[in-house]
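Need residues for this backbone.
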């Protein structure tokens, strides 16, 4: 009687020095380290390019008459502009393979930077146009990068590895802000546009290297990679509106940005009240108000960024691993609920500084990573098209709703800080319900996808 041996699956590559080092931060397996490091560097470069030109945005729009008001209205204009651009992106995705799509879109944004440089040097009034451009760039190119990351990883791998890639984005933002501050002193404001173009071009070269070094067909199946073909012919907005999961995600992101943008207004008002109180008490000279406010926000943003990077590197992957995506989705709204409940009861700067630091550092690290993971169990068409709707138009729509809340609250109802905080706390409760429903749907979709591959 002969014995037939059971087929064995191919052995996975052993962990090298790079994978063993990366395991300090998350569960990296054999053969994953190089691609993970390259994608992390790519995210670093994209965010660095954005933060290099962000000071140019402020300089160009604020030097125009009524620049501060223009900046407020520009967010609404961006939402209208995205209603046009997102379907155009979807049409392009229907016709082009993935690599060509990303190359065309990124080159389009790179080409504008030298043009803006020449116009800025000629003192042309381009502040509003550039503000609109950078708003669209920051949403669409970053959403496109994360669509690609979702496309080449399975849900299982993405849940393990996205925290490291998101750290690349966070550290790129910090580096971009740091280098722009130093470059302005050396070369001035306008040349930052050329520096950003060079960084963005380098990120595109790196992307093509990553995509061209993909493994052979058998290994691609193991790691969940898909061939480079056109993405599908569905309408981007229709994909979101007709799918329960995508609609839940859209509402979740809408509430998140509504709450966050309104929360920044609440913090700004509390800081302004604290400065006025110190002036009235004689502990701060009237001419020192700007210094007080600027110093507060400089310290605040630095602490938030540092805390967010530490959370990103050492805690996010472990929270996802041990608690799961559904629970991780609920952590940010629970912290925000505590933040705004505190603001409603005790709107003091000493307390709000730290509760808002906790809220924003968790939002920038854990919540930002988990929201990218939500697209792991979606189709390729949903990743590239629906993600552009949610990560660009819906994000900006949340900002517009926050601006409308502040406008109505200050002009028609004369609301106090505590009352604005109560409104935000009520919105957070809706956000929390949406997080629970979205997390449940994520589990269902992931289980269905894993069952289909067995």
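Answer:
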């Amino acid at each position: 009687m002969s014995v037939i041996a059971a087929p064995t699956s191919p052995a996975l590559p052993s962990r090298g020095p790079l994978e063993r080092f990366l395991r300090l931060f998350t569960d990296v397996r054999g053969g994953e380290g190089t691609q993970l490091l390259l994608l992390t560097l790519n995210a670093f470069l994209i965010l660095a390019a954005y933060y290099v030109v962000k000071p140019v945005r402020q300089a160009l729009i604020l030097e125009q008459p009524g620049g501060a008001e223009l900046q407020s209205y520009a967010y609404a204009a961006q939402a209208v502009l995205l209603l046009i651009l997102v379907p155009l992106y979807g049409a392009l995705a229907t016709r082009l393979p993935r690599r060509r799509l990303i190359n065309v879109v990124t080159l389009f944004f790179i080409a504008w930077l030298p043009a803006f440089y020449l116009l800025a040097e000629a003192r042309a009034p381009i502040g509003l146009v550039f503000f609109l451009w950078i708003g669209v760039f920051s949403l669409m190119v970053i959403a496109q990068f994360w669509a690609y990351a979702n496309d080449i990883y399975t849900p299982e791998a993405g849940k393990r590895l996205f925290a490291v890639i998101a750290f690349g984005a966070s550290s790129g933002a910090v580096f971009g802000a740091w280098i722009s501050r130093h470059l302005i002193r050396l070369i001035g404001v306008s040349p930052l546009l050329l520096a950003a173009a060079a960084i963005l071009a380098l990120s595109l070269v790196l992307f093509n290297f990553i995509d061209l070094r993909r493994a052979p067909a058998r290994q691609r199946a193991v790691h969940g990679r898909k061939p480079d073909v056109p993405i599908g012919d569905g309408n981007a907005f229709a994909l979101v509106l007709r799918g329960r999961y995508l609609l839940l995600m859209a509402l979740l992101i809408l509430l998140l940005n509504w709450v966050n943008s309104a929360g920044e207004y609440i913090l700004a008002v509390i800081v302004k009240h604290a400065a006025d109180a110190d002036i009235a008490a004689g502990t701060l000279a009237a001419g020192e108000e700007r210094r007080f406010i600027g110093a507060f926000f400089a310290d605040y943003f630095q602490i938030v960024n540092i805390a967010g990077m530490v959370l990103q590197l050492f805690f996010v992957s472990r929270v996802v691993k041990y608690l799961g995506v559904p629970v991780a989705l609920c952590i940010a709204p629970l912290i925000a609920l505590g933040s705004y409940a505190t603001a409603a009861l005790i709107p003091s700067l000493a307390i709000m500084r730290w509760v808002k630091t906790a809220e924003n550092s968790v939002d920038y690290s854990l919540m930002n990573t988990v929201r990218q993971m939500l697209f792991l169990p979606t189709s390729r068409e949903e990743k590239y098209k629906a993600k552009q709707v949610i990560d660009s138009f819906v994000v900006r729509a949340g900002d517009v709703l926050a601006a409308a809340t502040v406008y109505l609250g200050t002009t028609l109802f004369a609301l106090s800080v505590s009352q604005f905080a109560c409104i935000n706390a009520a919105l957070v409760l809706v956000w929390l319900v949406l997080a629970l429903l979205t997390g449940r749907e994520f589990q269902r979709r992931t289980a269905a996808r894993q069952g289909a591959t067995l």
